[in-house]
Amino acid sequence: MATRIDQSNKAGWLMAGPGIFLMTAFIIVPFFLAFAFSLTNQRLASPNATEYVGFDNYRGLLGVAVFTLEPERDDAGEVVIDDDGEISYPRLRNFTRNNPDYPNLAGKREWFSWQWGDDRIVILAADVVFMKALINTFTFVFVVAPVQAAVALGLALLINQKMRGISIFRALYFMPVVVSIVVVSLLWRFIYAPGDGLLNNLLGFFSFGAFDPRDWLGNPNTALGSIMAMSIWQGVGFHMVIWLSGLQTISPTLYEAASIEGANKRQQFRYVTWPGLRNTAVLILIVITMQAFALFAQIDVMTNGGPLDSTQVLVFQAVERGYGKQDISGGSTISVLLFVIVLSISLIQRYLTREKN
Amino acid sequence: MKHILKTTVAIGAMLVSTTAMAQTELSLWYHGAGSANAEEALVNQLVEDFNASQSDWNVVLETFPQLAYNDAVGAAALAGELPDILDVDGPIMPNWAWANYMQPLGIDEALIADFLPGTIGRWDGEVYSVGLWDAAVAIMTRRSTLEKYDIRVPTIAEPWTGDEFNAALEVIAASGDFDYPLDLGMAWTGEWYPYAFSPFLQSFGGDIVDRSTYQSAEGVLNGDEAIAFGEWWQGLFENNLAPGTSQDAAVRETGLLEGNYAMAWNGNWAALPVVEKFGDDALFLPAPDFGNGSTIGAASWQFGISGTSENSDGAREFIEFAIQQKYLSAFSDGTGLVPSTKAAAAETANYQPGGPLEVFFDLSEAQALVRPVTPGYVVSAKVFEKALSDIANGADVADTLDAAVDEINEDIERNSGYGH
C-alpha cells in the first residue's frame, strides 16, 4: 500500500538524506559492527585472522559460580581457629587454580562472600573487575539521577523569580556545564587532594581543626562518592535550565487562580507546578540516566578505576579493554551489554511514566 | 609587468619541483612534539643534516605529542598510511613488528656492535629498531643522609641486600626526619610501573612472564618469589615507608630536593637537578639485590622502518646516518639521556669519565634487562601496573597476582601465542 511518504516526496527524502546517511554511518553501522565484533576475537592490531568465538566473550564477562568454603579442621574434626580468633579457611586459590576436581571454578575469582555457620559462602565471578564496574555504574546512576534532578529543580525554583541580578545566579549555576569535563575533573583532583587539599582545608577550618584530613580519591570508601558529588555539581546547571524552561511554560493565570482559591505556596507546587512539569520530569530523568551510564571522563582523569576497582565503570572498562589492551572484541561486548541495559531501563522508565488514560 | 612576474614565479615553481623530483621523499614520524628540552630541535637538525648530506632522499619530519603518538601509529596502520621511518618505544616494538607495522632494519650489525644492549630492538632473531640513547634508573639520595643514619654506601659490585635496604628504610622512618624514607614515583602511572618496578620483582626471582617460552606467566608472576615480592611491596605502603598511589605528582618532582623524601627511585632524566642542588653530596645507587641480582630496566625510544615502506633503502640510510657518534653525543647533551655507546659517552658533558651522571651509563652497561620481548607486553604491562597498584592499596597479594596471571595467560591464548 503506497503512502505519501514514498510517493512524490523526493524533496523530503533529499532533505532527510544527509541526516539519514550520517546516522547510518556513525550510529547504526558501528552498533552492528560492535555486536558482530563481540562474537569474535577481533584485536586492535594483529596479524592473526579474526575468528568467530560464539558467546565466549559474554561468558567471560558474566560467568558466576557459588562455592561453599568449609573451614579447616584438625585431626579431631574440630574447626581450626587462628591467632586472631577467626575461623581458618583453606585458600580459595587451592580450588580455583589447577584443580581438576572443580572445573567450574577454574579461572574464577572471589567477588564477595559471607559467613554461614562455620562455612563461608563465596560468590565467584569470571571477571570480577567487570562485575565491580557493573555495580559501580548502577550505584552511580541510582544516586546521581534522582539527586541531580532534585537539586536542579530546587535551583530552577530559586532562580525562577523576578528579582534584580537574578541572571547573575543563572549564569553562575550554569557555568560548570560550559567548562570541559576534563578541566573540571582536573580541578576537582586538586580540591580532593589528600593532606592539605582544598576540601580538607575547608573542612578543617570549619571544624576548628577537628576534622582529620582524608584521601578522598585514594580511599576505596570515598572515591566513588567523591566522583558522584563532583558529577552532580558539574551537570546540575544544564538540567536546571531544562526545568526552568518547563516552569516558564506554566501559565501564570493558573497560579493566580490557585491563590484566589486560597492555596498556599506548598499546595501551589503540589497541584499546579508539579503536574505542569510532568513531561519535563520524564525528559530529565531519561537524559540524566543515559548520561550517568556513559560516565567516563571523570574516571579517566581522576582515578583510572582505582583504588581497588572502587571506581571502575562500564564505559571506562570498554575503552581500557578495546584500546588499552587491544581487545576490540572485549570492549565491544561491554558496549553491547551497556546498550541492552540502557535500552531496558529507558523502556521501563517510558512504561512507568506513560500517560495513563 | 604583472604578466612577467607571474611567468617568473611559474618557472621558479617548476624549477623547484623538478629538483624535488630527483629526490624520493621519505616520511618520518617522531614522538617528541612539544618536548620540554632540546629534543625536537635536535631531531630537526638531524633531518636537515641528512637531507644536505646526500641527494637521493628527502626526509620530511612530522612530530606528534608523545601521548598521542602510539594511537596515531595504530590508526595510520589500520588506514595503510604509515610513514617510511617510525620511532618506537623499545618494549612496544615487538608488538608493532608482529602486527607488521615494522620490517627488519637490515642494517650492518657491525655499526651497532658496541651499542648498549638495551638500545637494540630484536624480535624473532632480527634487528627491528635501534636507539640513539637508553635510560637508566637509580636510587637517588645524599651521602650525608646515609652517613647520618650509619648506612653503608652500596656500589654496583656490591649493592644493598634486601635486608640491608629494608633496615635502612626502617631506620630513616623511625627518625621521623622525612615524610617518607623512599619515593617510588607512584604518581607516575602508565609505563613507569613495569619499567621501574618489574626489576624489583626480577631481583626477587619472579618476572612478568616466563621468558623461556613467552606462553605463560604461571609460577613466574604468582610463584613463591613473586608472592614474596608482593608482600614486600605491600609492606612498603602499609608501614608508611613510601607514598602510595595517591602521591601528588608535583611532590614526586621536588620531594627529594625539598627534603620530603630521603631517597627517590628515579631516572637519569631527573638526575641533573639533584646534582645541581646537592653537588658532591648527591648519590646515584644501584637497586638492592633481593637474592637474584640487582637489575634495572632498559630500552627507550628507537628508530625503525615501517612495514609498508617502499623506500626501505632510504630509511635504512637515514637510520645509519642518525646513529653516528656525534648525534648520540648531541642527543645526550640536549636531553640528558644515556648515550648508546661508550665512545659517545666520552664526548658528552654528563656521561664522560668523571662526569656527574657517569654512573647511569655504568648501570645500563652492567645490569640493564629489557622488559619481556613479546608482542603481548602491551597487555601484560597494563595488567602488571594494575596488580601493583592494587597490592599497594591493600589487596590480597596471592589473589591479585593469580588474577594477573590469568589475564595474561588468557590474552596469550587468545592471540595464538603471539607468534613465538
Verbal overview:
The complex is a heterodimer of chains A (357) and B (420). Chain A is 59% helix and 6% strand. The model of chain A has no long low-confidence stretch (mean pLDDT 88). Chain A has helices at 10-37, 56-62, 93-96, 128-159, 166-178, 181-191, 198-206, 223-249, 252-260, 265-276, 278-293, 297-302, 314-324, 328-352, and strands at 64-69, 109-116, 119-125. The radius of gyration of chain A is 27 Å and the shape is globular. Chain A has a 3-stranded antiparallel β-sheet with strand order 1-3-2. Chain A has 14 helices and 3 strands. Chain A folds into 2 domains: 64-125; 129-352, Orthogonal Bundle (MetI-like fold). Chain B is of the alpha+beta class and 420 residues long. Chain B has 2 domains: 2-134 and 300-365, 3-Layer(aba) Sandwich (D-Maltodextrin-Binding Protein, domain 2), CATH 3.40.190; 137-298 and 373-419, D-Maltodextrin-Binding Protein, domain 2. Chain B has 16 helices and 15 strands. In chain B, α7 crosses α8 (224-238) and α15 (377-392) runs antiparallel to α16. The radius of gyration of chain B is 24 Å and the shape is globular. Chain B starts with a helix and ends in a 6-residue tail after the last helix. Chain A binds chain B through residues 41, 43-48, 60, 91-93, 96-97, 107, 109-110, 128, 193-195, 215, 217-218, 220, 304, 306-309, 320, 323-327, and chain B through 71, 74, 77-78, 95-96, 98-101, 189, 244-246, 248, 378-379, 382, 389-390, 393-395, 398-399, 402-403, 406, 410-411, 414-416, 419.
